Amino acid sequence: MSITTGKTAQKKHIRTRHIVLFFLIIAGCVSYMDRTALAIVNIDIAREFGLSYTSLGLVLSFFATIYMVCQIPAGLAADRIKARSLLTGCLMVWGLAQLLTAWASNAGTLVGARCLLALGEAPLFLVGTKIITAWYKSAERAVPIGLFNASSSLGQVLAPALLGLIAQEFGWRSMFCTLGGLCILLGLTWGMFYQKSPTADHKSVAKPKQTARQELTFLLAQRVSWVLAIGCASIIYLQWLYSAWLPTYFQTARHLNAAQAGFLSSIPQLAGFFGSLSGGVIIKFLGKTDYTPSRACYQPLITGLLVAALATAAVPLCPTTLLSLVSMAIALFATGIAMTGSLTLGTIVVAEESIATMEAIQNVGGSLGGALSPLLTGFIIQHTGSFTLAMEAGSMITFFCISIYMIERSRFIN
User: Fold this and answer.
1) Which listed residue, of 77, 134, 258, 375, carries a Cα 20 to 30 Å from 13's Cα?
2) Residue 5's pLDDT band (boundaries 50, 70, 90)?
3) Of 64-78, 171-185, 279-293, 347-361, which has the strongest mean pLDDT?
4) Cβ contact 316:388 at 8 Å
5) What single-letter DSSP state applies at residue 352?
6) What is the pLDDT of residue 175?
7) What distance in Å separates the CA atoms of residue 317 and residue 326, rounded to the nearest whole number?
8) pLDDT of 224 strictly over 80
9) Mean pLDDT, to the nearest integer, of 92-104?
């Protein structure tokens, strides 16, 4: 191969991987718009279907519960099924789920649509991370993974403003119809564009067995898998605490109208977006020093969780809306850093062919936190009439998970 041909191929590779990453960011953004859409119209749907706060929390938790159950199968599938077919199918299922939500006539139909949405979205971040590890070398992954992770916060930034406007002008059913159509369009686009992933250049710490059962058994036997899963539980708990209840908090605890609540809700989510981006930059910077790759991920992870826990505890104690907003922004900024650290660490400690399954294990823990968060928060609000104890509970859960990370530090930090 000539030098000119080699340079041309390299430029094409770089251009293609940028396009792939851009699409994954869009998909991640839309997925979180899908997930949080229900929170934007919580009050309208609760009023129409006659739901209490506890019942509403239960409906919100169904997504995270089914998402959690699907994680291990989705991870095994992402390690074995071609990315083009899997992601196309997922996007089409999302679209159908959102259309079903728009046609819901009772709480049961709504729950069914949320379960279908969880089924469709379960493989996204698993197959997305798998794609990134194939296109980017180990030393290059922190920033792309940070960008991909940040797409979740970006979706939560855009959702209150864009979806809130559609719901206000055309009704909440039209909002879900719009999301459904967008997901189907994305699925068709990905199916036509993406061909195949390049062969990834990655050396593993340990190589597990090749069958699905042996691979899963190997990973579950590793204590580091459980530590990462528990850590993800606290991260996603906090993210769901804010994404599922933030508009309701501003309307009830701070006595703002729906438009004001929607606008202010986007500000902490924007901070979370920049936190995820910053996490990738910080990890890349630390990796260029005397930090090992695992330690470069661990340090921002622990620091981010600590700051997030303290900021969340401060939210209900703030005397003004502005101060509570600042505390929320700090909490989600720190959570974004922690999430990027957690996901990047997961790609380092296992073999390349098991990365999606490892992230699935992390996501099971995260989904447990995501299922518990709206359910416990709704229960606390229902019985106390206040968000104070709900926020403090989130902070205490995070401190507990930090202690697990610190106790088990030596198992995955070299």
Assistant:
1) 77
2) low
3) 171-185
4) yes
5) G
6) 92
7) 12
8) yes
9) 92
Summarize pLDDT for 40-57 with one digit per residue, the tens. Answer: 887 788 888 888 877 877
Higher pLDDT, residue 141 or 233: 233
How confident is residue 202, by pLDDT bands cut at 50, 70 and 90?
Answer: very low
389 Cβ partners below 8 Å, 6+ apart?
380
Structure tokens at 52: 């209490």
Q: Cβ(27)–Cβ(87) under 8 Å?
A: yes
* 138: CB partners within 8 A, 6+ apart: 201, 202, 203, 293, 347, 348
Please tell me the predicted confidence (pLDDT) of residue 209: 45
Task: Determine the Cα–Cα distance for residues 58 and 104; give it in Å rounded to an integer.
Answer: 17
Mean pLDDT value of segment 282-308: 91
Q: DSSP string covering 148-192, please?
A: HHHHHHHHHHHIIIIIHHHHHHH-HHHHHHHHHHHHHHHHHHHHH
Burial class (CB in 10 A: 0-12, 13-18, 19+), 388: middle
205-209 contacts at long range (C-beta below 8 A, 24 or more positions apart): 205/348, 205/349, 205/350, 205/351, 206/350, 206/351, 207/351, 208/350, 208/351, 208/354
- The Cα–Cα gap between 219 and 232 comes to 16
Q: Residue 103 in 3-state DSSP?
A: coil
> Cα–Cα distance between 266 and 108 in angstroms, integer?
29
Structure tokens at 354: 């098991």
CA 66, 359, 159: angle at the middle one, nearest 5? 60
Which are the contacts of 285, defined by CB distance < 8 A and separation ≥ 6? none
